[in-house]
Amino acid sequence: MPDIRHRIRLAAVALLAFASVATAQESAPPKQVGVVEITSQSVPRVVTLPGRAVSGAEAAIRPRVGGMITEILYDAGRPLKQGDPMFRIDATTYEANLSSAEADVASARAAVTEAESAYGRTERLQGSGTTLAQVEAARATLEQARASLQSAQAALRVAQAELDWTTVTSPIDGMASVAGVSVGDLVTAGQAEAMATVTRLDPIEVDMYEPSARMLSVISDIIEGRLKMNEKLQATLTLETGQTYEAAGELVAPGFSVSTSTGAVDTRFRFDNPRNLILPGMFLRGQVELGTVQAFLVSQSAATRDRTGKLTAWVVEDGKAVQRELTDEGTWQHNWIVTDGLQEGDLLAVDGLTGLSEGAEVATVPVTFDENGVVREVEGDSAPAPDKTPVTDDAPATE
């Protein structure tokens, strides 16, 4: 009997505790959540791509004539202009060749003068002391002399060019490497080993790599009218330090093939690089603005993504919390670009999300975002009405 009475008392205590909890729950006010009314808007479609800097032009400096290096005329690491001298090769032999070629031209020119005079005399005397055969022979001699003059003049131009090539100049603007030869070294025309390298750094070019699957998705969006392309593609860069590069780049050449090793398409952009901040081989991150899409902007703080990649957010319907699955097309200024899962005028919950459950009753409080992306209550409006201000966030864009 005492055991039965003890059990009855425990049951009564449990019933009383449950009743008090239920009463407390019934008397608790609905949870307050901050909401904004979302509207569809034109949003820039920006893709972030890995990239690598490459030089737009790089020249390996090799001699066009052979000989001994007598001078190195440049300082390594200093900028060079096209035509600036870099090396000097011993010119003694080439100066002698030029003098010989000049003498050959003078001799050939004298021979032409003599042949012209002889042909003129013979032609005038034809029929009165000379025959037609003699006139034709004189004409042939003249043509041969003129041909010899042209040959000598060509040899003179070659001799002059070879003498000029003894001073090796830079073919492009750029930065020169350390010389690979020293004074006294013997070089040969067209040798395999370069004497130095000149690399153009301004402007610099960047290869950006886009997965072919995403490229097909973009093409599909364009065809179906979801994406309105810009007339001109431009790109910005983020350096390895996280710093945003100040210059915008322009498209040089789109990619026309897919890499068999990476499955990506290589697209090249050109950037001004006056301070030589970007060097060939440097890894970068590029942001390319493709165009605009009609979508909803959802603050990243108001949505969550699970391990499977599913993006969800809370909206308020008839005073109750409802979780929606969203389809996004990347980000813009720390907002998700949502193309499906929301409707015009939906109340998006952006504050007070902790502890929300499906179907829970909530009280809406209109809020907005300040210039730093922080949620603020709407001043001068205490009624639980939706806010008309669209989601904004001025933080830098990420992908």
From TrEMBL:
Record family assignment: Belongs to the membrane fusion protein (MFP) (TC 8.A.1) family.
GO term, biological process aspect, one: response to antibiotic
Residues annotated as signal peptide: 1-24
Main location, first listed in the record: other
Compartments where found: Cell envelope
Domain Multidrug resistance protein MdtA-like beta-barrel: 203-291
Name of a matching Pfam family: Beta-barrel_RND
Statement: the UniProt record of this protein carries the keyword Coiled coil: yes
Membrane-traversing stretches: none
Gene Ontology MF term list: efflux transmembrane transporter activity
Species, as recorded: Paracoccus methylarcula
Any single GO CC term annotated in Swiss-Prot or TrEMBL for this entry: plasma membrane
Region of interest (Disordered), residue spans: 377-399
Protein name: Efflux RND transporter periplasmic adaptor subunit
Top-level taxonomic group: Bacteria
Alphabetized Gene3D superfamilies for the sequence: 2.40.30.170, 2.40.420.20, 2.40.50.100, Helix hairpin bin (1.10.287.470)
